[in-house]
Specification:
This protein is of the alpha/beta class. It has helices spanning about 5-10, 20-30, 45-50, 120-125, 135-140, 165-175, 195-205, 220-225, 235-240, 265-275, 300-310; strands spanning about 60-65, 70-80, 85-100, 100-105, 110, 125-130, 150-155, 185-190, 210, 250-255, 280-285, 315-320. About 30% of the residues lie in helices and about 20% in strands.
Length: about 350
Amino acid sequence: MSLQELQTMVQELSLPRFTASQIADWLYKKRVDSIEKMTNLSKAAREKLSEDWEVGWTMPAESFRSKDGTVKYLFEVECPIGSDGTLESSVIEAVVIPDEDRKTLCISSQAGCKMGCRFCMTGRGGWHGNLDRAQILSQILSIPEGPELTNVVFMGMGEPLDNYETLSAVLNVMTSEWGFAWSPKRITVSSIGVLPMLKRLLDEHKCHIAISLHNPFPDERLQMMPVQAAFPVQDVVALLKRYDFSGQRRVSFEYTMFAGFNDDRRHADALCRILKGLECRVNMIRFHKIPDFPYETSGAEVMDAFRNRLNAGGITATIRASRGEDIMAACGLLAGKHKAKA
């Protein structure tokens, strides 16, 4: 709940207005997991709250630790799917990535995904419902590393902008003074470029943006990403060029490297052309092999040459280190399966 929603709730319960600020402090600063632990509320107030409300944490069902220190957490959730409110049980995943003085959490916004990108295990599994605010925030609050996190990236399961109203409410909790009070610079939202919601995100929030691009040529991108038909990458880039990214807010483009498909000079030069004039970065990602998919990842020398050509063309490009591949936690591998079912 937002502070305003908490204020409405305590008013309906005939509790003092300041009780809402106390509850927000317990939820988002002290991060308690039960109403009973809100000890500066009177016993009568806590009893009244507990009649109809609870602190809606979802605890991890399982965790897996990679040899590189990455940790993947599995959460069992129930999501409404369809207009009749039917709930579907599913499993979502969140990944903690430690790196020197940083500790980044990659979180999910949906159970599964509708976007159907051919190279992504999440997309292959289909869509099983939108996560609610509590299910998203639980990925931050209920893991042992929660208090130590330096950054959160919405790059887990799902398309965040396909669940925009919930995403927006979660971002408000994370950045408001009554919530986590984080700087928006600590948060990155990744998207394939759902244009109407992308504009709202740009207008309503100040977090970083990461766009899944993967190919600068529309016909080739369409082969990998069906969403190209609805939201062409050239329109996404045109929208981004209307905003200022020279200050604290950044935009980056995710570019998964497929050998012989999108990794030659032609693609590098086309990327330079479409991104010209936009203050941005290209994050090159090694493709992680999945079953029944024809492409392999580009080799190290090819990736180095591609990065160097982008840099020479005026586009800042880096090769992202691959983390957690041995526990199926790397980019494109989150499939929402228990260890016993894997």
